[in-house]
Amino acid sequence: MRIITQIIIPLAFCGILPAQLKELPATPQISAIPQPTLYDSVVKIEVATQVPDYRTPWNSGRFSGGTGTGFIIGPNQILTNAHVVSDNRRLLVTRRGSSQKHVARVKHVAHDCDLALIELQDFAPFEGLPYLKIGGMPRLESRVSAIGYPVGGERLSVTQGVVSRIDFSSYSHSRADSHLVIQIDAAINPGNSGGPVVQDGKVVGVAFQGNTQADNVGYIIPTPVVKRFLKDISDGNYDHYMDLGISPFPLFNPAMRTAYQLPADGKGVLVANVVPAGPADGVLERGDVLLSIDGNAIDSAGNIRIAGEFVDMNEIVERKFAGDKVSLSVLRDGKKFEKDLTLKEFPHSRIYAIQYEQIPRYSFFAGLVFQPLDLNLFASFKFDDRRLRQIFADYVSKGLFREMEDVVVLTRVENDRLTTRMGGFAGMAVSDVNGTKIKNLRQLHEILNAPNPPEFHVIEFNGANRPLVVPSAEVAAAQKRIMAQVGITKAAQLD
Amino acid sequence: MKKLLILTLLLIKPLAAAPEDSLVRINSTIQTYSASQPWEKNPPRSRRGLGILLPGHRILTTAAMAADSIYIELQSADSTKTVPAKVSAIDYEANLALLVPDADHGFLVDLQPTSIGDPSKPGEEIELLQLETNGEPLSTTGTIRSMELLSTFVTGRFFLGYIVKASMQTSGNSFTLPAFRKDKLTGILTSYNSKDQVSDVISIDIISAFLKDSADGKYEGFPSLGISTTTTEDPHFRGWLKLPEDKGGLYVTRVLPKGSADLAGMKKGDVILGISGFAIDRRGYFKHPGYGTLFWPHLVRGGPAMGEKVAIEILRDGTPMTLEPTLKKAPLPLIPNSLYDEAPPFLIKGGLVFQELSKPYLEAFGKDWATRAPLNLLDVLSNPEDYEEGRRRVVVLTRVVATEATIGYDRIASQIVKSVDGQAIAGLPELAAALEKSPENGIHTIETDEEPYQIFLDVALSDQVDRDLLKRGLPILKRLYTLE
Description:
heterodimer, A: Pdz3 Domain, N-terminal domain of MutM-like DNA repair proteins, 8-stranded antiparallel sheet, 6-stranded antiparallel barrel, B: alpha+beta, 28 strands, 17% helix
């Protein structure tokens, strides 16, 4: 209650009024220097970005910028969204009621849950400000306030709303991740991002995304996700979210249940696929039935009940870290057994997530631009080759990464007298070069640039009706000529 | 009396039968099957065009006028008299059809059959005939600007045609119009571009071959080598293939199993240098002595008949060779390119809908089908050779109708079926046979290519569901074909 009073006073103070001041000159609270409040710990973050252009990976990329919000949660610890600070070249933090800009840098960033922790070069000007406390889960229909620096003005803004839904939903920043999300009916606008959402003086979430299809809807990252992030980085490293590496399939069908020797009790979910080389590979098999996870009974849709809440079984894994164990109760061929599974990072699945702070990899060979496939590349080129799209779709689920660490794509063919008939191959995935299966970009680069090349380099593509042929005698001159024409100074970026 | 009069006319001036006296209006009602619910038909559409009366009360028109028709009516030029008709021969690829009256000849006896003209050449003038609403003929003179291989109905199937420059009045909703030269039939116009005033006309060469083939009442069709090719314009590609600069060459990218080229030993990677003595250039064209530059398939489809041999000069690994395929029809493809006048086979079991994959099925996903249709099915279309093993057709679990037997299967769709109860599935009849057998545990195991990879169906329950589906208004639960 006291904190709320504190909130109300400064609001009156900066917003309404000099006029009231004059009328009430003797009021002692006003003449006194106000104590710093929770509002003062909410800061504005100005970011200058440099976003690489995957269409011209040799170029510097696009310089741009924007603003967001952050809040102080500890000594020189400012929490904000990952998307506020992604691809940044310069970060400046401004205190409320001040024009001075303070240089900051990213300490930890978690793109999979859109959170980041930044620190100031010099925290001294911020000493004495209160640290916002991370609270629990707000109740449905309870009132919360979103604080930040959204568009529409220069000063701090506060909007109030009601918790309208608690759900497991997608995080748009990476385009690939889903976690717990709270929906509120307060508008979250550009600039609000990274700002705290408070209730009873404690942070109950971080504002992070809106919904273009609905009005007056804002989404916030709830505190279990925030706390997991803070715990994950406590060892100095962010290890990402863990995943079981399986595809569950609901076991509603009576015939299916009979086939898997299950009674009609609504329990157990089918393991429809096990990601090869993933955490569950060697532990679970396709056709296993998961009965419980860490002692929580799994229903036939793959849901469990934790602390009275009905959630996806993934919620157990969501809260764990690399190296943690998950104990599973499994039914295989009618026999029940218990098995522990050790969670581990599975970087291959990041092919489906937008990458940030990455220098795009490429190899430029006589007018041909080769790049490894990921979502950034897919978003830049809009590939329509069916085989390429099929490879992308099957990359993790069918374990294609075991043969192709990179899916190397011929993304561009620069116009030149050497490449004049080669344009038709752009957008296809390389399968072989000079008779060798291609596993990654570096290997392709090395084969093409090896000393004593064959008379013709023969590049074969998945689903192409003929190979692409480059006469090696013409390569050196063409490489020099085309690099000069297109303005490329570096022939390859392999790391 | 009437007959006598015609006879007299013929006797006096045997060649004077005016082209317009052979014109017949054709109204056809076209109805196709629904791709997603193959047990029912789409709403009917009507198509109007013209036909030409040939001796023997046969009417020549385009396949577009007759394909998927459920009713065809011949109408006199003045629209006063009608005769129902049926298809006696049809070639979807060449876009030609021959109709005959279904009952008596009716008004057809009042008409003058036309005669088939000699081949036309570029530069010659032709008459394009239309009918006005009042039945009067409307003739437009045009010039054959060039001869090309045209694909006028089924995409990707090319036949000799004329590109005709003529400024036409665009009346009627269909372009199936006869073209005459010196009062004899020389082609059928299939499309007209009013902006460029250019039209596509099927050549008399193709029409004559079609009529000759259908004369014995048993239509065989045009031969095909059964290959896919690509050009050799890329100089580096040519260098690698060891193709001399003074040669052309067409690179063979795919040889259909059991097609005439395959049987003659042609292989992927061969380069075709010549067919029947004509040199094939690097884009696949050859010089025809009378018609100008034409695309190579004309040497297979436009001249030799089925069963004849053609000499094909190839280069294999730099060595010249000659192959002599015996021409035959293209082998049945894994994915049918078209399904005209064929009711698509399907099978429903317990609410699971199985169909054979075809191009029309994929095209039913709309204008952007090539990107919107399910990826795994599009891949079969692009790379059929990867799916041919053990299959005649690709059976797809296309959708799941909600029934008691398909509880929990709602999100399953467009999965390729591999086996049923351990038995590989080569086509829909094989699937039907496999589902007829009852496994020991009373549950069918259907293996597919996508998650959950195995789908289970209770035999007794699905039989019950099938009976219910019939009661619910599904007319039939399967449409199969018999295996030869």
